[in-house]
Specification:
With about 475 residues, the protein is α+β, with helices and mostly antiparallel strands. The chain is built from 10 helices and 15 strands. The protein has 3 domains: about 100 residues, no CATH class; about 160 residues; about 130 residues, no CATH class. Strand 11 and strand 12 form a beta hairpin.
Length: about 475
Amino acid sequence: MPNVYGLLNVGQTALLAQQKAIDITGNNIANVNTPGYSRQQLTLVQKTPVRVEGMTMSTGVTSETRIQRFYDQFLVAQLNSEKDALGRWDAQKNVMAKTEILFDEVSGYGLNGAMSDFWNAWQNVANNPSGHVERVSLVNTTQYLTSTFSQLRGSLTSLQEDIDDSVDSAVTQINIITSQIADLNLKIIQVESGGHNANDFRDQRDSLANDLSTLIDIESFEDGDGNLTITAGSGQPLVEIGNDWTLSTANSGGVQHVYWNSSNGSTTDITTTISGGELKGFIYGRDTLINGYLTDLDSLASTLITQVNTLHSTSAGYGLDGTQNNFFTGSDASDIAVNTAIVSNPNKIAAASDSAQLPGDNTNAIAIANLQSALTMSGGAATFDNYYTALVGEVGQDVLSSNFNYEHEVTMVNHLEQRRQEISGVSLDEEMVNMIQHQHAYNAAARLITMTDELLDTLLSLTR
């Protein structure tokens, strides 16, 4: 330093640098519990030295304009990837939890019990083919069976409609988040173009991107200007600089599809290209899992209608009045019902296979009752009961799979969150140590200024 006045400058810059460090440390402590906050640190550097009388003299300390932000870009990208998987399995787990309730067979009031009662009722008619009580009981039991089919199918369809509402809600959230990220892009570019840091804005943007990845799988990259570009689907942009593109939903084939809206007003259906996030879980649960259960349920009802009607309405079956009628109407689980002619006149139930043997012939009732053990489903590989049991087992397996994958992703996300916390999180113990260090340095700088002032007083006193 060239003179005593240089000491004042050293003390002044030291005071300012330590004051900034204390401010940043205090900000870290204040945000210790703020979600998504990344720890910050002031980088102190030596000021440019000067040459004095053939010697290189130091001129004190200063701080860099940009404040260091503790941040691991690759860890955050990995966390976002796991978040979209977690969102997918969380949504699918919720869908399966609601589906599992619909296939409850423990109470004895499910479809399995209704089918068992149906076959038993036919056996009772076979035991007493002319009995009015047995025939009325068969009609009532069958009506309960058909209503159980219809109710189960209707509940599955209603669940798909509920999922449509969830898809709409997720799309609304996505549009809100992408708009906020676009705004933060502009703020970050504006701040950092002046050589300053936008750490707080970056934390907010990372937190929003993390929330976005929970809703839909995204690809993101940051350019040299600090702009974060985000794409989804098959590469459709959601955010670029200060621009954001919205998603929308519209009915297609009876369910809500997701569309990307371009700047020129056209739309692109991206439903099948969504591979992660809550949207994937909802869409897969609705279009693949529940649709599969509906197909199996309709196949069960359709085959039951066909097999029973084949025996009941052809030359093989005769009612007590000698007539032949279909026992069921409808084509699948959506409209299966007992023939209204039989409901109004149970004597039309075709228990006999020979009109000359009425009213005591029960051979057709036995044949229909024996359908319970016939290999009528899955191409002749399963009975009605086995087929439905397999369907219930499939639902249970999908529940287990969803729960297992959800728990796995929770573990993975928690592990990555812990790693992020270790890198970016605030440690109160560490910050308190830093606070004490900066405080002592500040006090020392202040003491340097005081001492310099005393030196100046001494010099001035020599001139008096």
